[in-house]
Write a structure and sequence with these properties.
Order of helices and strands: HEEEEHEHHEHEEEEEEEHEHHHH
Oligomer: single chain
Strand content: 15-25%
Distance between the termini: 38 Å
Radius of gyration: 18 Å
Number of strands: 14
Number of domains: 1
Strand order of the largest sheet: 1-2-3-4-5-6-9
Structural class: alpha/beta
Number of helices: 10
Helix content: 25-40%
CATH architecture: 4-Layer Sandwich
Shape: globular
Length: 300
């Protein structure tokens, strides 16, 4: 599996034009999650799928050039058409297929802030780099938006999407398949690495921790957890992720309170143990996350 740092750099590279990335050998593969529910895994964010007699409900849709491969993977699950696409946030690796699927009759749904951000140019910042992201075309924009939550009654399930504030971005939605006992976290949860918190889009580590806590209060011991990136997870793994984030935030904040500048804090490597527990051995990724926490802790 790609490291989270590699995934972030990939996102930065394609933020201005996905056509610049070579998807020639890219694969989109379906993995069963629960009866009627699958996860599609490819170069972009994980796609959640509810498939049944009522049609196909998708959570996110990868990059635009991968739409045919997404549809081919769905063809191995069902012959029904895609009726709904719900975007968990605005980033292109989760919304790139919107225009293609919308043109085939799918209704695109997202939080209010997703449509706002996709409608105008965005500045995406990471590791000292700033990328300009052009506005999406009108055909890619969500047609239905919500402020707090929305429920779909489809394929014998209640699929409840609810907004979590200022987490990965300011437009994140968590999606709960109530009957299937599955939850899709979007990029609030990176399984197998440190998260990318898009502070330029209103994200915050405090918001991510709060969103993880809210989700943990909602799900049970046997709930399947689909992360935005990485393999299918359990409640135990999600809880460990949330606790690691909480600890890392506290450790950096303590050093800030002691008056240490950022270069000293980086030398101390305060989050090394937690990063390794999450599968990260890349010092650059570790330092970048420390800097993200530092900026949030020291913000006026």
């Amino acid at each position: 599996m790609r490291t989270v740092l590699a995934a972030i750099l990939s996102l930065l590279c394609v933020a201005s034009a996905s056509a610049q990335q070579d998807f020639t050998d890219a694969r989109v593969v379906a993995e069963p999650v629960a009866p009627g529910v699958h996860m599609l895994v490819g170069p972009g964010g994980n796609i959640g799928v509810s498939a049944g007699a009522d049609g196909v409900f998708l959570i996110d849709d990868q990059y635009a050039p991968l739409t045919d491969r997404v549809l081919a993977a769905l063809g191995g699950i069902t012959s029904e058409r895609v009726r709904f696409v719900l975007n968990t946030h605005w980033h292109e690796d989760h919304t790139g297929g919107n225009e293609n699927l919308g043109g085939r009759g799918a209704l695109i749904v997202a939080h209010d802030n997703v449509r706002v951000r996709m409608s105008v140019e965005q500045l995406l910042e990471f590791g000292g780099q700033t990328m300009r992201v052009a506005p999406s075309s009108p055909g890619a924009l969500p047609v239905v938006t919500f402020a707090e939550d929305v429920t779909f009654h489809i394929n014998g399930d209640e699929i409840h999407a609810f907004h979590v504030e200022n987490a990965h971005t300011d437009g994140d939605a968590i999606v709960h398949f109530r009957e299937a006992d599955v939850v899709h976290m979007g990029d609030v949860y990176f399984n197998g690495g440190l998260p990318f918190i898009d502070t330029s889009s209103g994200g915050s580590i405090d918001g991510v921790v709060a969103a993880v806590d809210e989700t943990l209060a909602l799900i049970g011991a046997d709930t399947k957890v689909i992360p935005g990136h990485g393999p299918l997870a359990t409640r135990v793994e999600l809880a460990a992720y949330g606790e690691a984030l909480r600890t890392m935030r506290r450790l950096v904040a303590e050093l800030v309170a002691e008056g240490h500048p950022i270069d000293h804090i980086l030398d101390f490597r305060p989050i090394e143990a937690q990063a390794r527990a999450l599968g990260v051995t890349d010092r650059a990724a570790e330092d970048a996350f420390v800097e993200t926490i530092y900026r949030e802790v020291t913000a006026p």
